[in-house]
Design brief:
Number of domains: 2
Strand order of the largest sheet: 1-2-3-5-4
Radius of gyration: 34 Å
Distance between the termini: 88 Å
Structural class: alpha+beta
Helix content: 55-70%
Number of helices: 12
Number of strands: 5
Shape: elongated
């Protein structure tokens, strides 16, 4: 094949590689379709200009200025397309270039050492190397990197240091003062640099994941704390309401006494009948713990009012080794999820909610409910959050699990979704208190 044609194909492959890596790593402000069209059109223009420059200068002189003529124009494009215009953009740019150079370096090194700088061989191994590099970006690096872009707005300068150093080392190893084909002894050094590049980016992924897990843990703790605060306010409101009813009852008794003393017994009877009709339903008794009982009664009676069959077996003593409000926060979040799932079932007879809690020999609680449709689990058997927003129950459970070093288990069996949490190091609260309240 004509040498100039092979050179043109190699240039096209270089530009195409940059296009793919750009689309994978750039957080763009426009739609994917608009961005793909803009990048493709821009790449065609830049490739044509570089082909003209290469034809005028010759390949060897052109290869020394190629890092500038082939990559610098993309800085303008990235500024136009990127959702960020700070150091996160700089990191994206140098990362795209680094992976592009890695692809170029693998093909060039193999060709220079084993095949005497054959352009066709160089082209073949570049195409071959593109596959694992692309898979590394797509399935390993991209997801935590994209999440990191949203979570971390500063500190990206240090991340830019290594790809910039790699860029410089690549240039002086394989391009300047002479190209790699004229000094194949540098191929081993270049391949080591490329290997080091992937090691560093793998370490970055580990750091990203650690940072994101830490942020998620803090957010879950804040969520649990806010849930506990809301439940505390709710419990206070319930207690205030109870005090109000007691004061109201005292006033009612005084009014009845006055009516009877005045001889108006019929008026007293009518008044008592009205008060009986207006009185609240007595608080249901689900467990011995007063705080949990008040809060759980509110949610479980609400479930019954929605036509959901409720089965509760809560052997929770008054004294707990954990914070009662935090336990309430997790249980009520799971119960709310269960109620929402049950309400999606058209047949009211199929709506079931089961909740149980035991404190001996190990502290375990479970919330189970019937559901309609499909619940998707991820690779860790954890429910995938709905697209409409985060799963508050799952996040509350995660925060609880992290704080108390517990284990959470999600299960789909017998037509029911079950979430089960076990506290591993809180054994035997006491057999005497471990009694069921009927």
């Amino acid at each position: 094949m004509n040498q100039s044609v092979l050179m043109g194909l190699r240039m096209t492959l270089t530009m195409g590689t940059l296009v793919v890596f750009t689309l994978l790593l750039l957080q763009y402000r426009y739609s994917r379709k608009v961005t793909a069209r803009a990048v493709s059109l821009f790449t065609i223009v830049v490739a044509l200009i570089n082909l003209i420059i290469m034809k005028k200068m010759g390949y060897v002189p052109y290869s020394k200025v190629m890092p500038l003529t082939a990559t610098a124009p993309y800085l303008i494009l990235y500024l136009f397309l990127s959702a960020y215009r700070d150091l996160r953009l700089v990191f994206a740019v140098v990362t795209v270039y680094s992976f592009g150079l890695a692809d170029m370096g693998i093909g060039g090194s193999i060709s220079a050492v084993f095949f005497g700088s054959d352009v066709a061989i160089d082209l073949f191994f570049r195409m071959l190397a593109f596959i694992p590099i692309g898979l590394f970006i797509l399935f390993y690096f991209r997801k935590p990197y994209m999440r990191m872009l949203h979570q971390m707005k500063s500190g990206w300068l240090i991340f830019c240091a290594f790809p910039l150093l790699f860029y410089a080392a690549f240039y002086f190893t394989s391009i300047y003062p002479v190209i790699l084909h004229e000094r194949p002894e540098n191929a081993a050094i270049l391949l080591c640099l490329i290997g080091l590049l992937f090691i560093v980016y793998a370490m970055l992924v580990q750091f990203f994941q650690f940072y994101l897990d830490h942020v998620e843990e803090m957010q879950n703790m804040e969520l649990l704390s806010s849930k506990v605060s809301a439940l505390r306010d709710q419990l206070e409101a319930i207690n205030n309401g109870q005090e109000y009813r007691e004061r109201s009852a005292d006033c009612s008794l005084a009014a009845v006494k006055t009516m009877i003393e005045s001889g108006d017994t019929e008026a007293a009877l009518r008044f008592l009948q009205q008060r009986q009709a207006q009185s609240d339903v007595p608080l249901a008794q689900y467990c011995q713990n007063s705080i949990l009982n008040v809060i759980l009664s509110f949610y479980l009676e609400r479930a019954k009012a929605e036509g959901i069959t409720v089965k509760a077996d809560l052997r929770i003593p008054e004294d707990l080794p954990i914070d009662a409000l935090e336990l309430s926060a997790v249980l009520t979040s799971a119960i709310e999820n269960a109620i929402h799932a049950c309400l999606k079932i058209p047949d009211r007879a199929e709506r079931r909610l089961e909740i149980s809690c035991y404190t001996s020999p190990r502290f375990v609680f479970e919330v189970a409910n019937t559901y309609a449709g499909e619940i998707v689990m991820d690779e860790n058997s954890v429910p995938v959050p709905p697209e409409t927003g985060p799963d508050i129950a799952t996040r509350s459970i995660n925060a609880f699990v992290q704080k108390y070093r517990a284990l959470a288990d999600y299960d789909l069996s017998d037509g029911m979704f079950r979430v089960r949490v076990a506290l591993l190091d809180l054994e035997g609260v006491g057999e005497a208190d471990n009694e069921r309240v009927d």
